[in-house]
Amino acid sequence: MRTLSIRLTALALTLAGAWAAYTQTPQAGQTGAAKAPAAFVLHKVADDLYVIDGGGAGNVAVYITSEGVVLVDDKYERHFDEIMANVKKVTAQPVRYVINTHYHADHSGGNTRFTGIAQIISTTMARENILKKVQSNAPADMVPASLTFKDEMSVFLGGKEVRAIHVGRGHTGTDAMVYFPALKVLHSGDAVTSGTPLIDYPGGGSIVEWTKTLDRAMKEIDFETLIPGHGPVSPKTMMLTYRNNAETLRTRFAAELHAGKSQAELTQFMTANYNWQPNSLNMQWSLPGMMQELR
Q1: Which of 16, 45, 264, 292 has an alpha carbon 20 to 30 Å from 54's alpha carbon atom?
Q2: Domain 2-294 maps to which CATH number in 3.60.15.10, 3.40.50.1440, 3.40.50.720, 3.40.50.300?
C-alpha cells in the first residue's frame, strides 16, 4: 500500500492542471478520434482488488474473495477473453458477479458473454435502457442485468461486501458507483473520467445534476481512492477536480448560450475550448441537451 500511496500523492499534485490535458486527449467513444486502443494492463489497487484497463473501454475492477470474484463493468463483448485472462493472473476463483456502472456498451457490452457464468447487476434504469436500445451506437445483442436495484444494493461474498449505489444523475440517468467499504475504494463509472463530461441526455444525463451527484458522493461515501470510468486510479481529490471543471464547463457554455449564440457558434466554442469533434457523441448527445437544459 505504501507504493500506491506514493503514486496517488504524485497524481494529486498534477490533478489541478489535468483538465487542459484531458481536452487535448479525446476519450474513445466520445469524440470518434481514430487511434489504436491501449493494450490491456492489470493494476493492483489494494489487497485483493485490481483494475484492468485498456481496449478503448471502461476500467474493470476485479475483487477477489474466498468464494469467487466480483467484477465492476465488463467492457465490450469482444474483450471477454482478455478480461478472463487477466483475472486468471491473480486468482483461480470463478467470476460470480458483474456489476454494471451504467448501460453503455463500453462498460456493459461484455454482459453478452458473462451472463453465462455470472449474475449481472445494474440499476433498474440501466436494464431498461438496454432493453429499449437507448444507446444509438450500441451493438444489437446487448444483454441487460438479471438483478437490479433502484437506490442501493450490497453483494456479500467470502466475507466481503461490495456496495452499488445510485447516487444521482450525471453521465446518464442510470449511473451506479461501486464501493469497496473495507478498502475505502470507489469505482465511479463515468461519473468521473479522464475526459471532459459526456452528458448522455437521451439516457437521462444532466450537466446540472452531475455536480450535485458528485457533491453527494464526496459527502456521503467514505472513500480515499477513486477508480474512474476511464483513466488512472487516483486519490479522492480527482473527483473534486472533475466536479469543479464540469461546473466551469457548464457556466461557460451557459454564458455563451445566454449571449444568444447559435448552435453552430456553440459547436465551434466547444471544439475550440474542449476539443469536442464534429459528429462525436458529445455533439450528438451533449450539446443539444445542454442547450435545452441551460436555456
Answers
A1: 16
A2: 3.60.15.10
